[in-house]
Amino acid sequence: MTNRIPIQRCQYCGCWDIGLGWQHGEALVTFKKHGMMGNRLQYLICRRCGAVLYQCVAEPYRFPPVR
Ligand SMILES: [Zn+2]
Asked: Where are the domains of the chain?
């Protein structure tokens, strides 16, 4: 990942202790209706209150454009 993390502080509790998480496996966000190919979801999570502050996919260019 070369993306810069867009959030450094929890907007809910004001905590600066942000954790990075990945979701993959059974809960993949797929870009094919019935395919097995998926994309990992990156999460930024407040380590104090547990709020999910941000989420994005690891490889957004793999998704087809809407138009
Ligand atoms: Zn928080």
From this structure: 1-67
